[in-house]
Write a structure and sequence with these properties.
Helix content: 40-55%
Strand content: 15-25%
Strand order of the largest sheet: 1-2-3
Number of strands: 5
Largest sheet: 3 strands, mixed
Number of helices: 5
Shape: globular
Length: about 140
């Protein structure tokens, strides 16, 4: 099996110039925990924002400024300052047996799938759980 067999290709991305407030609302309304971050200039993948990182930033703001100031502080925090820029990328042709080892060794929640540095999909740990359930039910 290859990455293309389990990746989600209806990927929700966010601009590097978006704010933490934008990311928070996007994750809540779209029910996602990982956002590939793309350049506003050319649409290329430049980072990844995880739910864990977003929650950490929100909690830091609440602890430092209080809940009343949260929305204002979130609007002032750019994604480009929070996103991870050191991350693994996949192509849709990569074999799953190699990808799953990478997930296990690095305790990752997601890996973006690219074609010429443009996001075409995403593989999450949930995708592997769904695959496992499918194989167990055969």
């Amino acid at each position: 099996m290859k990455v293309r067999d389990i990746m989600a290709n209806n990927v929700i991305c966010i601009s590097h110039k978006a704010t933490l407030k934008d990311a928070h609302e996007l994750m809540q309304t779209r029910g996602v925990r990982h956002l590939p971050v793309i350049s506003e200039n050319d649409g290329t993948l430049i980072g990844v924002l995880t739910h864990k990182k977003m929650i950490s930033a929100v909690m830091t703001m609440i602890n430092k400024y209080g809940t009343d100031a949260l929305a204002r502080k979130e609007r002032g925090q750019l994604i480009e300052d929070l996103m991870a820029t050191d991350f693994q990328k996949l192509t849709e042709d990569e074999p799953l047996n190699i990808v799953v080892e990478y997930f296990i060794a690095n305790k990752l929640g997601c890996l973006p799938v690219i074609d010429e540095n443009k996001v075409i999909g995403i593989v999450t740990s949930s995708d592997f759980v769904k695959l496992c359930a499918h194989l167990l039910n055969k």
